[in-house]
Amino acid sequence: MKKLVLVCFFALVASASFAQGRPQQTPAQQLERLKTQVTGITADQETKITAIYAAQGKTRDSLMAAANGDFQSVMPAFQAMRTSGNAKIKAVLTADQQKQFDAIPQRGPGGGAPRN
Fold first, then answer.
1. Of the residues 30, 48, 72, 108, which has the fewest C-beta atoms closer than 10 A?
2. In Å, how far from its chain's centre is CA 78?
């Protein structure tokens, strides 16, 4: 019985940890990650991309608050936000940078769906 309780406890802790997912990155962290995958980003592009990431963060936070625990209900809005944000970022990039951006593997809902 003691082992069963212990196993259930660990299963509960593991599921709670998994449900929280990874912590969200700041716009500056997102930009730094992008710069490791897309070369030649200028200071002007950095400013514009950081603003896009910041706006996405505010929208994401609003959606999370509105979800009230039902994250499946806001998943289409998350996907639309990601698609829109990616289009805005691509508009800031040069043609060569856009190709590099398109080659970046993206985690989508469920961990593997493509972003486009």
1. 72
2. 9
- Give the separation between CA 110 and CA 113, rounded to whole angstroms: 7
| Secondary structure letter of residue 112 according to DSSP | T
Asked if residue 86 is part of any domain, the answer here is: yes
If you ran DSSP here, which 8-state letter would residue 23 be given?
P
pLDDT of residue 19: 45
Neighbours of 102 (CB within 10 A): 15
As a whole number of angstroms, the distance between CA 85 and CA 14 comes to: 32
C-alpha dist (Å) from residue 62 to 4, 21, 76, 108: 40, 18, 14, 19
**12 inside domain:** no
pLDDT value at position 39?
A: 96
The range of the structural domain enclosing residue 83 comes to: 27-111
pLDDT band (50, 70, 90) for residue 67: confident
